[in-house]
């Protein structure tokens, strides 16, 4: 068992600290039961209402009938905050089923993208094997929160089909990067198109705008460094990497990344299918918002749902961005009384449930014969330096020699 570095402990502390902070925020902002807003600013629990008034229960347990004139109104409607229990009771099961069905093509499209990404590195994987590994990776993303995650397990399985282990592991990482690029493109395009079509809270609008700008700036700078030979030579990246521990391993990762430049058609196809599958994810989420009777319009969800997934993908986020994504959706979907905090919280949970439902078939991969890796196997894969060919034949076929460049 390898020891966790000081940076690793700091990152873990930050991640779980964010999780605790988000949990505290949700505890104080998401009610389980309905509440009514009174003119004096108090928010007692609402038991029932009729023409005679509102029966409420205070924190002390005392019940009282409140006259209508003491209640705060939004136009002609009493200002009520629905609790989780009421939101769950009112959910539309037919729209829930439709949202679940709309997500069905997503893992299959992600599997096709993985086939194309591996082909860039001359690693051949059949579509069926890619489908199995995609489902397995999705399942372990939920089953192993806070440990290695589904991406590393997917990479482990792929290395059983090739001796180009560094390229295979790097490709799984690049596959995730392509997915994030698709999310960024989708969120950015809709953000620009909605400039005058959505009434944004100024603080939320500024935060989203700056966030997208910073992420795009980092991506563009990274791409220029990686794919520009002149810039690589200017910064002497190869010489610098060669002097680092596992330098040859880093150089092979760099060559695997640069190989994408020679396969522009496959890269563009991967980006295109990513945009389509991410659009399906957002449409599925939007239908789920309708099932929860949420307001805001299609465009708002097409912007904020991808941003929620981007937040979940940030390395410092807790596992699965537990609590953080829920808190973000409350900020996005509740300003101005657009929706209740309970609806936004339930929406975030429902989006997770849809993903989990289509990840569950992945448990069949280890159950039906594929060797489930031990933690030591995954740590060895994570730290492995450049592997030499000819160690063992991969499952399902002869070993393929490492490219070496």
Topology:
Layout: H1 6-29, E1 35-36, E2 45-50, E3 53-57, E4 63-66, E5 73-74, E6 77-78, E7 80-81, H2 84-89, H3 93-102, H4 105-120, H5 127-143, H6 149-159, H7 165-193, H8 202-227, H9 229-235, H10 237-242, H11 247-258, H12 264-291, H13 298-313, H14 324-333, H15 341-359, H16 364-367, H17 375-383
Antiparallel strand pairs: 1-7, 2-3, 3-4, 5-6
Helix pairs in contact: 3-12, 4-5, 4-7, 4-12, 5-6, 5-15, 6-7, 7-8, 7-11, 7-12, 7-13, 12-13, 12-15, 13-14, 14-15
Distance between the termini: 32 Å
Q: Summarize the amount of helix as a percent range.
A: 55-70%
Mean pLDDT: 77
- Major sheet size, sense and barrel closure: 3 strands, antiparallel
How many beta strands in the DSSP annotation? 7
Q: Which residue ranges are poorly predicted, with pLDDT under 50 across at least 5 consecutive positions?
A: 385-405
The ordered H/E elements are HEEEEEEEHHHHHHHHHHHHHHHH
Overall morphology: elongated
Number of helices: 17
Our estimate of the beta-strand percent is 5-15%
Strand order in the largest sheet: 2-3-4
The structure class reads mainly alpha
Radius of gyration: 25 Å
Integer count of domains: 2
């Amino acid at each position: 068992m390898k020891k966790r570095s000081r940076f690793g402990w700091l990152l873990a502390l930050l991640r779980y600290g964010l999780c605790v902070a988000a949990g505290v925020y949700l505890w104080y902002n998401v009610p389980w039961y309905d509440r009514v807003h009174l003119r004096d600013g108090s928010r007692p629990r609402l038991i029932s209402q009729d023409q005679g008034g509102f029966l409420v229960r205070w924190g002390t347990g005392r019940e009282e009938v409140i006259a209508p004139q003491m209640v705060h109104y939004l136009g002609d409607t009493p200002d009520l905050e629905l609790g989780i229990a009421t939101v769950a009771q009112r959910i539309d099961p037919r729209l829930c089923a439709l949202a679940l069905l709309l997500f069905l093509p997503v893992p299959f499209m992600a599997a096709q993208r993985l086939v194309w990404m591996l082909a860039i590195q001359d690693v051949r994987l059949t579509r069926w094997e890619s489908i199995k590994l995609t489902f397995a990776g999705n399942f372990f993303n939920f089953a192993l929160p806070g440990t290695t995650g589904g991406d590393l397990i997917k990479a482990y399985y792929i290395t059983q089909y090739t001796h180009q282990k560094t390229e295979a592991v790097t490709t799984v990482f690049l596959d995730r990067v392509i997915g994030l690029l698709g999310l960024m493109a989708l969120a950015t395009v809709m953000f620009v198109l909605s400039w005058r079509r959505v009434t944004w809270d100024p603080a939320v609008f500024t935060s989203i705008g700056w966030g997208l700008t910073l992420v795009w700036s980092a991506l563009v700078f990274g791409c220029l460094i990686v794919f520009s030979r002149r810039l690589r030579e200017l910064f002497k990246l190869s010489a610098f990497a060669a002097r680092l521990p596992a330098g040859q391993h880093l150089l092979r990762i760099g060559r695997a990344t640069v190989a994408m430049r020679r396969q522009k058609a496959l890269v563009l196809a991967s980006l295109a299918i990513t945009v389509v599958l991410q659009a399906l994810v957002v449409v599925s989420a939007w239908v789920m918002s309708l099932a929860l009777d949420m307001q805001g319009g299609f465009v708002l969800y097409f912007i904020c749902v991808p941003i929620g997934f981007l937040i979940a993908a940030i390395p410092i986020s807790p596992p699965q961005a537990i609590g953080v994504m829920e808190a973000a959706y409350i900020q996005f979907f509740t300003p101005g009384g657009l929706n209740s905090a309970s609806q936004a919280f339930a929406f975030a949970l429902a989006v997770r449930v849809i993903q989990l439902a289509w990840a569950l078939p992945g448990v069949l991969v280890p159950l039906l014969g594929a060797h489930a890796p031990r933690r030591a196997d995954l740590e060895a894969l994570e730290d492995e330096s450049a592997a030499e060919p000819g160690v063992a034949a991969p499952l399902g076929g002869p070993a393929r020699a490492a490219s070496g460049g």
